[in-house]
Design a protein that fits this description.
The radius of gyration is 26 Å and the shape is elongated. It has helices at about 10-20, 40-45, 65-75, 95-100, 110-145, 150-160, 160-175, 195-215, 225-230, 240-245, 250-260, 265-285, 290-295, 300-310, 315-320, and strands spanning about 1-5, 30-35, 50-55, 80-85, 100-105. The chain has 3 domains: about 1-110, Response regulator (Rossmann fold, 3-Layer(aba) Sandwich), CATH 3.40.50.2300; about 125-210, no CATH class; about 215-320, Arc Repressor Mutant, subunit A. The model has no long low-confidence stretch (mean pLDDT about 85). Helix 5 (about 110-145) packs parallel to helix 7 and helix 6 (about 150-160) crosses helix 7. The chain has a 5-stranded parallel sheet. The protein is an alpha/beta fold. The relative contact order is 0.07.
Length: about 325
């Protein structure tokens, strides 16, 4: 069902709209709420998003044009139409720039509204089909660190399919790289309809950066070692220990690692361990000293200095949910 909200201050318009035989199981459009202003709708949307909105044109002025755009872009309402008792409503120039897709004027024609419903359903079917292709492309761009991924996210947002596409790509990422669960929570990167787009975009791009620091580009001969490190961040990961584990020369590992990964071995291990420590800080009640020891840091003061160097806050500050932005 398409959850429909009516934003009408005109009682005559409300009575005429609700009396039409276009609502219910047959059309899949059902009126779930009625309010009389855009601010009241915004408060309602904080509790539950809608799929479709019908908004009285007189409520859209220069003062509340911005809230209308916010509703249609940030609040998950993919479809909207204006309605009016004025046949000349379009002369005001509202429709082309507001993001709404159609307009209805008195006397309302049921065939007009039903045709609009048909277009919405057809559009959504096309979106569902293309979501797989779009998410596969986003996933490929993510893996390749494509510079165009920023503008691609904007494109998805403008089409109002950002959530469907990014969620599919995120699920694929976590399914294919199980070690990622040790450093991040999949649900933290799924799109929420009430979330500000720029906040979500920065979070998504933050995951991109951290993923490629955890698993940088490398030659196949280092894959086994890197995956071992990523799956075992709490182990003894000193160069000597890994050389013995994989039966390779310690000097060779010391030379080949920075040449192929473009980061010193000791710096990479430090980053992996600190990322795992950050996960413990966000997801457990373990004390900082306990986390430091678990990550093989004997000196908690040194651990705290290294943590602040990487995350720009102390371990205790990082744990605060409201004062600091989310970092993977």
């Amino acid at each position: 069902m398409y959850r429909t909200g009516l934003i009408l201050d005109n009682s005559r318009l409300l009575a005429k709209l609700t009396s039409l035989h276009v609502w219910g199981e047959i059309t899949q459009f059902e009126i779930e709420a009625v309010c009389s202003s855009l601010p009241s709708l915004l408060r309602l949307l904080d509790q539950k998003p809608f799929d479709f909105l019908i908004i009285e044109d007189k409520l859209v002025s220069q003062d509340n044009f911005r809230p209308l755009k916010k509703i249609l872009s940030h609040k998950g309402c993919r479809h909207a139409a204006l309605c009016s008792d004025d046949q000349d409503m379009l002369s005001a120039g509202i429709l082309p720039f507001s993001g709404v897709e159609d307009h209805f004027t008195l006397p309302f024609r049921e065939d007009h509204i039903l045709a609009f419903f048909d277009r919405i359903r057809a559009e959504d079917e096309d979106v569902q089909i293309s979501t797989v292709e779009l998410s596969d492309r986003l996933f490929s761009m993510f893996m390749a660190q494509d510079d165009d991924i920023d503008s691609y996210l904007d494109y998805l947002y403008q089409r109002r399919i950002i959530g469907e596409v990014t969620d599919a790509a995120i699920k694929k990422l976590f399914d294919q790289h199980e070690w990622l669960d040790l450093y991040a929570n999949e649900e933290d990167y799924l799109f929420e309809s009430l979330m500000d787009y720029m906040v979500y975009k920065n979070r998504f791009l933050g995951l991109l950066g951290c993923y490629h620091q955890l698993l940088p580009d490398h030659s196949p001969n280092l894959s086994e070692i890197l995956l071992y490190i990523l799956y075992n961040p709490e182990n003894d990961l000193r160069q000597k220990t890994l050389s013995e584990t994989f039966h390779i020369n310690q000097s060779y590992l010391s030379m080949v690692f920075p040449a192929q990964v473009d980061v010193r071995f000791v710096d990479y291990i430090s980053y992996v361990k600190l990322m795992r420590a950050a996960w413990f800080l966000k997801n457990t009640d373990m004390k900082v000293i306990e986390i430091a020891r678990r990550m093989n840091y004997k000196d908690v003061a040194y651990f705290s200095r290294q943590f602040k160097k990487t995350f720009h806050v102390t371990p205790s500050q990082y744990r605060l949910p409201d004062d600091y932005s989310f970092v993977i």
